[in-house]
Amino acid sequence: MTWLATVLDQEMLETIRKVSIADRSTPDAALPIKTGTDVATELGGRYLLRYVLKDQVGTFMGGSTRSHWVTPTPYTSRDATAFLALPAPNRLRRFVMVLNPAEIPRILGPRWVRLGQGIEYLLPNGFPTTALVSGWELELR
Amino acid sequence: MSPRDEFFESFRDLLSKEFHARGFAFLGGPSDRHGAWELSFGRTGVINLYVIIAGIPRRRQTNTGPEVITFEIVVGADHEDRFTRRIVDRGFDFTENQLQFVSGSFLRAVSEAMNIAERLTIDDLTDRYLPPHSPTRSTRQ
To answer: So where are chain B's domains?
Structure first.
């Protein structure tokens, strides 16, 4: 099912929205720069997901100015590790932050995950508190 | 900017020199990929080579103890829809206070990672990127 979720996101972006997903070798600096409103439109109003390690729960409830990678595709903890080619594969991301792209001023991407299977966007300046849809992390079950 | 953020910025500059000397370009980072800092370097050619350095904050042993960053070095390569990804080292732990004294042994491990990447051939690309085709494109063929 994870494969299908990724395929449907690819379909939505490339076929329906006519958005190119950058090749895996594309440097961050060469990714297209978009407004959050643009990304919200190309995602059809869907949200962006930033998976969270258990001991980092609560860290970003005030927003973040760090750059973060996010994905539009929902994954289980195990599939997130595999599809997003995450470091520390032995530490499952059991939580997720749901972010509203329309509240994020600057977003780069999308790009295929390097050495992985997912689709991702880069938030080069992080995200404001107002982008947190639920106000806290959701536990993946 | 936190000491850790400052470290990763200076670490990027230090590593960039090492990688550039071997023909690898800086691809991006430091960015937070779902709980881990990541720096990526790559070299295009008959196959695309990648070396990715990730720093993963580890849970503190005590509430007052220093946070430990575990480093992981990943090597990979791809060509069209074929790829390989290997964790080649994850044996380096530094506390935030120690980050500025990154050891020569770590830099040697990074150099060895480049050696491993350079030895990869197209025959090593035994995994396949999914999805090879989106549903609508498959039906049009």
So the answer is: 3-140
